[in-house]
Amino acid sequence: MVWFSVSHLKIKTAQFVLSEAGIESHTIDKTDSAHAGLFGEIELYVPEDQENRARSILLEEEIISK
What we know:
This protein is of the alpha+beta class. It has helices at residues 8-20, 51-60; strands at 3-5, 26-29, 42-45.
């Protein structure tokens, strides 16, 4: 897991940026659909060998912070 968020928009933006850099990603949505996404988070995953590069890209693009 590279990052998690409660925002679908932020996760989709991160996936787009990573895709543009040639890094495949997938998500696991752990939000509670019965409560309109108020509980839980969406986890963003990349291949283990791409994790450091993905984090660097997301930091550089200011999608995530330190």
